[in-house]
Amino acid sequence: MTAMSMHEPTPADVAAAQRVLAWSLARLADREAVLPPAAATTLPGLSGRGIGIEAAIELLLGVVLPTAVPPDHPRYLAFIPGTPTVASAIADMALPAATVYGGSRLEAGLAADAEDAVIRWLADVAGFPDSAGGTFVSGGSIATLSALVAARGERYLTSSRQVIVAGASAHSSVAAAAHVMGCECLAAPPADDYGRLTRETLAVALDGRDADNVVAVVATAGATNNGAIDDLAGVADLCGDRGIWLHVDGAYGGAALLGSRARPLFTGIERADSFIVDPHKWLYAPFDCAAVLYRDAAAVRRALTQEADYLDWLAAEGGDNPSDLAIHLTRRIRGVPLWVSLQAYGWDAYAEAVDCCFAIAAYAAEQVSRRPHLELVLDPALTVLLVRRCGWGSADYDAWSAQALQRGLAFAIPTRHAGETVLRLCFVNPLTSRDDVDLVLDDLG
Ligand SMILES: Cc1ncc(COP(=O)(O)O)c(C=O)c1O
């Protein structure tokens, strides 16, 4: 193999590409078939001469990928599942070959406008003003880190703000961001069993603090562990009164803004300074795709734009680059598959899919309450259920989860609520059926 022939397609490459396409379409057509994952074997080592495209692709499709636990399986109910639409998965295939540099508008061309259109759609859904803007990053963690750095950066020269205040149910990425930024992460006292942040509990956390020392308040719109939405309106009131940046983490729950059931719970989100939602979770984009939106994008650009002699030219050519709105420079144009999917199906299909997930979560909750040995630990907020299997301790949950995966039944894992181990089931896959729910619940003995 010569250096040149790595970059020019041969007939063997064409055959490999056709094999990949056929495999990919078959994989998307049967999302059930991929559980349990295949047993892992030892991979052959890398070599100086290589094994050729056919053998390498065979290794990928036949040996490597089948060992992955598939987040789009209808009975993958752990963490937050991810189920890319067919259109978004197909669109994603084209991006590496097009080699779009997503950092600058000049280079990305209309691909940057396509991403902007999705950001504008999300801004409208959240009720953000015309001044809003944003970009796509790899995940909710980087999205929140970017927003918090922007929050501190805006008054960077005039303050030494060091505290990030969050609710008790905030995602671990908030504490991680605080750590990276060298800030204290202060948890407000929980207002209820869900650990919600309210105006009152935020006031307790802020009591006696100089608002100029607070980087931001983080409210959660869809807690990962239990689905709860903080009191966004009350928190927005207090942040407004004290001049504190409000960041809303809707990485999981933000998609519920599209559905008909939960919209009122989000009242107040339109007053946030920044907001994140992960399309790779409940908006059916391929990994990795998280959106970070800012109320005042121009101010954020001033805070986050990287400066270097060799970058000045891009800025002079108009600036306004996707790289200026997060902690990144080079980026893949990861918002485009979602744009293609929205073009293909329209946003009504997304709203319908979100409602579908609420319906299946409600069905699951009802089925839990009908089974004498199962109990709902909390009334479901959004689409996460916490289920107690009466008589089980944490070793029983662990053993059941491991076996359920091995048997190919489901991927559903325990969590803790108020110190107790319980089963957590997350419904964001519109392909999950009532039969899937029954299969899992019946298996709990
Ligand atoms: C509420 C919430 N915020 C942030 C994150 C982090 O997102 P990511 O895993 O994409 O970094 C998650 C992930 O589950 C989440 O549920």
Instruction: Describe the sheet with the most strands.
Output: 7 strands, mixed
Average residue-wise pLDDT: 95
Strand order of the biggest β-sheet? 1-7-6-5-4-2-3
Structural class: alpha/beta
What is the architecture of the largest domain at the second tier of CATH? 3-Layer(aba) Sandwich
Beginning-to-end CA distance, first to last residue: 57 Å
CATH class of the largest domain: Alpha Beta
Element-by-element helix/strand order: HHHHHEHEHEHEHEEHEHHHHEEHEEH
| CATH topology heading of the largest domain | Aspartate Aminotransferase, domain 2
Helicity, as a percent range: 40-55%
Helix segment tally = 16
Shape: globular
Strand content: 5-15%
Number of domains: 3
Radius of gyration: 23 Å
Spans of at least 5 consecutive residues whose pLDDT stays below 50 are none
Could you name the CATH homologous superfamily of the largest domain? Type I PLP-dependent aspartate aminotransferase-like (Major domain)
Ions, cofactors and other ligands present here are: pyridoxal-5'-phosphate
Q: How does this structure look, described?
A:
The chain has 445 residues and is α/β, with parallel strands linked by helices. It has three domains: 4-64; 92-345, Aspartate Aminotransferase, domain 2 (3-Layer(aba) Sandwich); 347-443, Aspartate Aminotransferase, domain 1 (Alpha-Beta Complex). The chain has 16 helices and eleven strands. The strands form two sheets. A seven-stranded mixed sheet has the order 1-7-6-5-4-2-3, with helices on both faces. Strands 8-9-11-10 form a four-stranded antiparallel sheet. Strand 8 (374-376) and strand 9 (384-389) form a beta hairpin. The longest helix is centred in the C-terminal third of the chain and has 24 residues, at 347-370. The N and C termini lie far apart (57 Å). The protein binds pyridoxal-5'-phosphate. Pyridoxal-5'-phosphate binds next to helix 6.
